[in-house]
What does this fold into?
Amino acid sequence: MQACFKRLSRTSVLFTAGLLLAGLLTAAAHAALPQEVVWTAAQRASAGLQIQHCAAAAYRPQFTASATVRSTAALLRDFSALEAAQAQIAVAKSRLQLATLQTQRAEGLYDAGQNVALATVQQAQAGAVQARAEVGGAQAAFGVAQAQITADLGPALALLLQHDARLRQSLLNGRELIVDLSLPPGRTLPPAAQVRLQVPGGAHTVSARVIGPAAAASSQLQGLREVLVAPATNGLMPGLSLQASVQSAQAQAGVWLPASAVVWSGGQAVVFVATSTASHALRFTPRKVSTAWPLHGGYVQPGWAALDVVTQGAGLVLTPPPKPHALPTSGGDDD
It folds into this structure.
């Protein structure tokens, strides 16, 4: 009983310490956010601050991924094995049908007292059993061939090729190619994603159709993989490693912030939002930003409304406001 109490006490102490540590970390994160400050027009002019209005607009999430064009050798091998298994099933079923008829005929003649030996009946029955086993073996080989295709191509493409004869023939003839898309760690494919492949040595890109998840994740990037199908255009051939642009078809409302507006304070990316005061000064309020969506030399903030931010001299706002320089007074020469 005493040992149980000690274990419970130790667990309670560790749990309490964890909560206190989490609270301290949260407080430290909030404490790292700079204080808002107020700068006059003279101070802003002295420091050379510039303010930019950032309007809200619709943006489509986009990121870069890596892609690899597959060889068709494995595809040809897998479908050859599948077609061979299908042929074996057809042959085995035909033999089973013939063996069944022969067995029925021999049993009928034997039961009617015709000139048929029992050994003949038993031989026919054994032939039917063997033919039935051959059908089972052929069906098992067909299942293995299907499983191999699923393992090589992924469940989505394997299922599609069972019903889409045109695509199957196009892949086998080399008119279209299978492409593995390796997503960065932590990334998932956005709904209705549009993928374009950058062809090496050229300025053009090739649009690829998303089929579905691959059979396995990327062992090198430790990210999810998707299977694509792309036309075999000039410059696109098996074995190539490419860069791919992944863009969502669904736009999100947000605000684009130039990179010059983002400063780092206490390990956090922040911008200073400018708002007017009653004395015609500007109040600079720090606001956390996310750098997860880079775009055109800046960062998109989903869900933000329009605002004014400091885009030049934002780092100076972290320091005390400067004292305005005294303007020279007009007067005569000291000659």
Remarks:
- Confidence is low (pLDDT under 50) at residues 1-8, 24-29, 326-335.
